[in-house]
Amino acid sequence: MRRAVIVGSGSALPVRRVSNAELAETVDTSDEWIVERTGIRFRHIAGEGETTASLATDAARRALAAAGIDASAVGLIVLATSTPDQTFPSSATKVQAALGIDDCVAFDVQAVCSGFLYALSVAESMIRGGTADTALVIGAETFSRILDWEDRATCVLFGDGAGAVVLRAEEGDRGVLSVSLHADGRHNQLLYVDGGASTTGTVGKLRMKGQEVFRHAVVNLASVMREALERAGLTSDDVDWVVPHQANRRILDATARKLGLPAEKVIVTVDMHANTSAASVPLAFDTAVRDGRIRPGQTVVLEAMGGGFTWGAAVVRL
């Protein structure tokens, strides 16, 4: 059976790392308040010359190097982001040009924090269907540029970064085993940006009702992970690692409890990177690959939920 196999991963972070203590110098907050409620200790903030596309390109280069694949072999780039460099053309085409690829399919996907799962599903389907043999799937964000830095309830939660994986068509039992995706647009006002090209003509700022988002996240994430495992013919006992969207440490812990998974099986990077939206899953995945926790032969569940609401999970055998 032709499957999409993850053969390499990479990530990139802005140079500037901001601690809670540094943030408290300009925002009415404290390290204790942030850590207690979120588990976040640091985040990276993009500086001059650092954009969603530049971070995505750096992550893509590292993923290609890890896979031992030249950029010329890439036939598909799917970039998940809610903070593109421009309204159009897509940031994926900027990555394509930066990598020196003359011609390949390249486009963006927008599903906020679930974006990487949506992008992975699209790329996996196109590989399985024969449209491409090698694909770059990237999640990249510069959320710092849509934050209201006077709203301490939201500005402390987010950071910038990028993560990428290389998918390659292979025959066998490795690869993406299942993907489950959902959306429910009735919850638009719980997590959104108050601007847009066709409404205000401005980029807008992020707005969120945190307690409501938390409640939906725990229920939806546990449910979609069970669904993805069932589609793959597996149970939670078969899972070596869960790589969740890194929004809030309390959400990660509550979701693991609902699934009966030990905390030791959950990859946690929210303390180092904060919530990087579509970048958080591939960024956490690459972190765990490079420190040796995630290894070939293991079964990994990726999951995320974001504004919309959108949510999803994927089961991958490495």
Structural commentary:
The protein is an alpha/beta fold and 318 residues long. It is built from ten helices and 13 strands. The strands form four sheets. It has a five-stranded mixed beta sheet, with helices on both faces. It has a four-stranded mixed beta sheet with strand order 8-13-12-11, with helices on both faces. A hairpin with a 3-residue loop joins strand 12 (299-306) and strand 13 (310-317).
Please name the defining characteristics of this protein.
13 strands, four-stranded mixed sheet, 318 residues, five-stranded mixed sheet, single chain, 32% helix, globular, alpha/beta, 10 helices
User: How far is the N terminus from the C terminus?
Assistant: 15 Å
Strand segment count: 13
Helix share, percent: 25-40%
List the total number of helices.
10
Query: Which spans of ≥5 residues are poorly predicted at pLDDT below 50?
Result: none
Biggest pleated-sheet summary? 5 strands, mixed
Secondary-structure map with pairings?
Layout: E1 2-12, E2 16-19, H1 20-23, H2 31-38, E3 42-45, H3 52-67, E4 76-80, H4 91-98, E5 105-109, H5 115-128, E6 134-142, H6 152-155, E7 160-171, E8 175-183, E9 191-193, E10 206-208, H7 210-231, E11 241-244, H8 249-259, H9 270-273, H10 280-290, E12 299-306, E13 310-317
Helix pairs in contact: 3-4, 7-8
